Amino acid sequence: MQTAKRRRLNRRGFTLVVMMLMMTVFIGSAAFATDFGKMYLTRGQLQAAADAGALAGIYLVANGWKDSTVDSARAYTHLHKVDTGFYIGSTAVVAPGNWKDTAACTPAWSCSAFVGNGNNWNDPAVDAVRVIVNYNGKYNFGRFFGFNTRALYDTAVAIRGSSLSSKCIRPWAIPYASLLNVLYPTPPLKDPLTYPLDTADITRLRAMTIANNISLKVGTAGDLTPNGEFYAARLPPGQYADGTAGNPWSGGNDYSNGISFTCAQLQAAMIATGSSRGATVSVGDYLKPETGNKEGPTRQGINDMCGSDTCDPPVKITAALWDGIFDVTFCTGCYRIKYIGAFAVTGWDQSTKSVTGFFTSMATQGGGGITPGGPPGPAQTTGLRK
Hints:
The chain starts with a helix and ends with a strand. By secondary structure, the chain is an alpha+beta fold. It has helices spanning about 1-60, 70-80, 175-185, 200-205, 250-260, 265-270, 295-305; strands spanning about 80, 85, 95-100, 110-115, 130-140, 150-165, 165, 170-175, 215, 280, 285, 310-330, 330-350, 355-360, 370, 380-385. The chain folds into two domains: about 20-160, no CATH class; about 165-370, no CATH class. It is built from seven helices and 16 strands. The chain is elongated. About 40% of the residues are buried. A hairpin with a 4-residue loop joins strand 13 and strand 14 (about 355-360). Strands 3, 4, 5, 6, 15 and 16 form a six-stranded antiparallel sheet that branches. Strands 8, 9, 11, 12, 13 and 14 form a six-stranded mixed sheet that branches. Strands 1-2 form a two-stranded antiparallel ribbon.
């Protein structure tokens, strides 16, 4: 009996030792879990800081303000908290470069990568900004086990490029020839069917103001159209680039509303037509012209948009630029979209019964896929890629 009792007492001592060892393991595991959770949180904060810096940088590049790109990118990283304080923006590494395809795969962007250009901010071909942020994450409980800090970093790449589509396009089809005539007013004139815009053209468009006004919708038939249209167009397209039929609206009310609608309202109006692509209008699509001058509906749309015949300040919109008028399967005498363009509407000119405006380089609403590199389009957009 005494031997059995002694054994039970011995087991109690053993259990106590085992429990102490297990508690040490449990506490250590909990400590490491807390520290690793903190590291993951810090990584998320670093990513947000890098994203903000890259977007700020590419915005300045797209607008031609490259001299202040590095300072601005670092300033935006500093706006984000990392751990217990704000990120030290001066430590961010900001670099210019290009976003290039590295292999053929689907989707294409998954095989693309940032390629640096030797930190040459003056290179007009720069279409990407990379921001790398670094931080030494501090362990709390890990210090008891000899772990003090861990080097953390995150990278963001933002790109600029041409907008190939829009879900907020206005019901006007503006001749690409008008843009070329503004860029190159003296002979030899550029052929709108064959001439692609280059980086220098986009730089000149960026500097345009009300002094470069053109007609976004004409009041005299036959201005630049062989069929005598007035640049007013129906939405969505009558035929898409791949040959699919569209189902555009008809009537003055839809057209007038399309001028003044918000983007959400315009998208709903195009979706309501039942076209297979919904509200998306893309390069290569064909727009069906509106019949007649549409003088009354146009002026009403401008007044709804601007509050009067004059848009003060000018209202930025996205519209189609066409290079020719074609007969295709589902759209006869239709405008073929060459580019998606960004414009500033200045108002209604009663004397000529036309809508006036000027070209800009940045689309402020709508927008679709970004295509970096290659000949740029007049509607430029930016976005994160990594």
